[in-house]
Amino acid sequence: MLGVPEHDAVHALVPHTLEEPILGAQDGPLAGRSFMVKDLFAIEGRKTGNGNPESYAAAAPAAETAPAIAKLLGAGASLTGITICDEFFYSVLGTNAHYGQPVNPRAGRYVTGGSSCGSAAAVAAQMCDFALGSDTGGSIRVPASFCGLYGLRPSHGRIDLTGVTPMAPSFDTVGLLARDAGLFRTVGRTLLQGSGTEAPVERLILATDIVSECEASVDQLVWDTLETLSPALPEVEHATIAGGTLAAWRAAFATIQGFEVQSTLLPFVEANNVELGPGIKERFEIASRITPEEAEDARGVRRTVESHLKTILQPGTAIVLPTTPTQPPERDIPDGASFVEFRTRTLQTTCLAGLAGLPQISVPVGEAAGCPAGLSFVGWVGGDESLLDFAVGLSDLL
């Protein structure tokens, strides 16, 4: 398992994990493959914990399995485990005060990123072939980058969210993590519903304002990677995407997310006086104070961002940006005051796709300061399949 002791790798799994695998169909494009899922998917006869033991204790066993899981089982893949996530998904760090912190098999001193932390750790440690998580504000893309994996946040609504615990429904998506580009594409195409808008990626725009905000090692990796990939890429245009408003975009995302949490997760937390871990507790307190007026102002910013990005991202065009602006923090960073800057910088990069409901893939491109790092491509609405094909096309050069 890439040099990671087995007992550490198993820390990717939650205590109430599967005793026996749920076997997939004998035939299908994913026959013989194994996968794990984040602790927010309904599995018939089992309870979902959402990263919190009190939530698990209060839950009833699911009557039906989430359609996303059922599709994969029908395509031949077998479900072999349930993975740790950040508590109530409210972090991008990859820690959990109750269940522990999964090990990053690619960089043991550093966090996996979250909130789909266990899913990323399990795939990177070769405990399964691929894994499902959710991505609201970066919860697939960040661990994909930090663990050296392929990650997909789909167009909003392209993968069925039935049977998946909601956090901020206008941002929530089911996401995918894999080590292999070909498998990444096969799983993605299996899960995507409805007709996409397929077109070859023929125009790339480098978000220079986002790159300029990165740590020096990440900035250098972006330029080096673009040079390495140049034989497979169209000419890359350079442009300012946000025009100095990235901080406002991030604030709008955080405000809308927090306001929607008031209707999804906060009622249970308050009604049961749930004991929350550090950082998560403070985030819920902030969310509880967001007013309808603040939320509506943030939605106005969102409408502007969505219109702006969708004007740029016509079929065949993608924006290039680093998946995360920094290397992963070391494992001993607390999810508290010292974590605020990391979270703020990260959400400033990841909020684009969420605000506009756009698909984004993270592609593993090497290391920055000795840690895995990802390069991302944000596409047009419905361009998910084209981005998956694009990832496969780049894989031979990476």
TrEMBL record:
InterPro entries noted in UniProt: Amidase_dom, AS_sf
Gene3D superfamilies hit by this protein: Amidase signature (AS) domain
Domain Amidase residue range list: 24-181, 272-388
Pfam families, alphabetized: Amidase
Highest taxon of source: Bacteria
Transmembrane segments: none
PANTHER family according to UniProt: AMIDASE 1 (PTHR46310:SF7)
Record-given protein name: Amidase domain-containing protein
